[in-house]
Amino acid sequence: MDEELRNATEKIEDEFSLDRNFLVKAKNHFLTSMDAGLTNEDAARVYMPMLPSFVTSLPTGKELGLFLAADLGSNFRVCSIDLHGDHSFDSKQSKYPVPKRLMKNSTSDALFSFLASKLQEFLKTHHHEIQNSTALKMGFTFSFPVEQIAIDRGKLIRWTKGYSLPDCVGRDVVEFFQKHIDMLNLPISIVALTNDTVGTLLARSYTNNSETTNSRTVIGAIFGTGTNGAYFEKLSNIPKLAGVTLPGDAQGMVINMEWGLFDNSLDILPATKYDNFVDKVTPNRGYHLFEKRISGMFLGEILRAAIVDLHEKSLILKDMPKAKFLPATHLLNQRFLILTEQMARFEIDESENLEVIRTVCETEWHLTTTIGEREAIKILTRAISKRAAYLCAIPLSAIVTRVKDEYRQDDKDFEVGCVGSIIEFYPGFEEHLLDAFNKIGPLKGSNKKIILKLEADGSEVGAALCASNA
Ligand code: BGC
């Protein structure tokens, strides 16, 4: 790599590195934000809203019955879940990609009518036996910030992850969906609305038989296209629920934190010019800035921003015309072209000539690179993904700090039920996350540890558990 490119690349690498002091400070800031969110009633404000889920207990593992679950995120998934009442379940499921044309510049009616038609398809394929007279209870996982007012009602606060249908904001999404289900005369009743993080916490609490695993599930977390988490909080710690009527025996509530909004005013979070660049090209500009530094939807775009910058400075891809002289479809101009999945392959390209990076650049993006340029791309990839993994340790260590005293009488480890492509597939992500968690050290001095446990289908199983309780 020539010296100028090396210096510039290392400078960017430095901007992305986070030290222990920062991590500890951020964990403390996160704890303060949790309290602020649990007190403040304005769910639509720009900082961490700590949304009540109206789920007032965690599953015991004994829940029983057949329920439907529908999950809208970057895909639409429909499942039927048969809970066996012994920490196990069977499921049938289908996944339907949501057409891009329905995600933005369209209407909520068009989106929910599409979703209802997929439910119909699902029933035809998997559940011929269900007649009108035996309406199935369904849990709806809606993985966006929602101000919930009951277990089966909630208003969309804002879209994230590339969706933008303004006519839905402020409206009850269950009402929308049920209307389209009824228009097709489907024997389905939505009895619970939930977030994917809440679902994941419930699902893992159900499947984890803590008698045999010796771990206690305390967090549900998503590290995928978006990022967020949920945990169970005591009612006495949620001042904003003071006037709300809840079941008499309720001791606490699962909180959908929407941690993608943590430090949205950027008081302490790192803000490189690449982060600012990415924010500017998203429909929810100015929001979910923590998420935009972490989740799968954005990491590739941060990398593209850094490559474009080096190219503008004539340090990389020197023979290529500047971005402004290239067709709009060219890599350097095309938003969100670099996929996190491609970065995952760059991350572990150990071949002498960096063949994986060379092939992707050449065949997928029509870029001819030198070995030095590929080395630079690999360094940038690793810096961006490592920072993302380190940032993920902040919420986990803050929550563990907050709840650990409640469990000081037992010796069980703290478990995080996880879902998401980044945590599941990105090489080294979990190791970096745990490394940062240990640097912060919320469990220092105890013999407990944190365990990240993948819970495939967590949000669907959780939605079914919510429905079973409704
Ligand atoms: C949404 C959350 C969701 C997370 C993970 C975020 O963009 O705001 O509600 O839990 O993505 O899917």
Could you walk me through the main structural features you see in this protein, from its secondary elements to its overall organization?
- The chain is an alpha/beta fold.
- Helix content is 40%, strand content 19%.
- The strands form 3 sheets. A 6-stranded mixed β-sheet has the order 1-11-10-9-12-13, with helices on both faces. It has a 5-stranded mixed β-sheet with strand order 4-3-2-5-8.
- α4 (108-126) packs across α5 (173-183).
- It is globular and about 70 Å long.
Number of helices: 15
Bound molecules: beta-D-glucopyranose
Order of helices and strands, N to C? HHEEEEHHEEEHEHHEEEHHHHHEHHEH
Number of strands: 13
The percentage helix is: 40-55%
Mean pLDDT: 94
Query: pLDDT below 50 for ≥5 consecutive residues: which ranges?
Result: none
Structural class: alpha/beta
Topology:
Blueprint: H1 3-15, H2 20-39, E1 51-52, E2 64-72, E3 75-84, E4 89-97, H3 100-103, H4 108-126, E5 136-142, E6 146-150, E7 153-156, H5 173-183, E8 188-194, H6 196-207, H7 210-213, E9 215-223, E10 227-234, E11 252-256, H8 273-280, H9 296-312, H10 340-347, H11 355-364, H12 371-403, E12 413-419, H13 421-425, H14 429-440, E13 450-454, H15 458-469
Parallel strand pairs: 2-5, 5-8, 9-12, 12-13
Antiparallel strand pairs: 1-11, 2-3, 3-4, 6-7, 9-10, 10-11
Helix pairs in contact: 1-12, 2-12, 4-5, 6-15, 8-9, 9-10, 9-12, 10-12, 12-14
Bound molecules: beta-D-glucopyranose.
Protein traits:
alpha/beta, 6-stranded mixed β-sheet, 13 strands, 470 residues
In brief:
This protein is of the alpha/beta class. It has 15 helices and 13 strands.
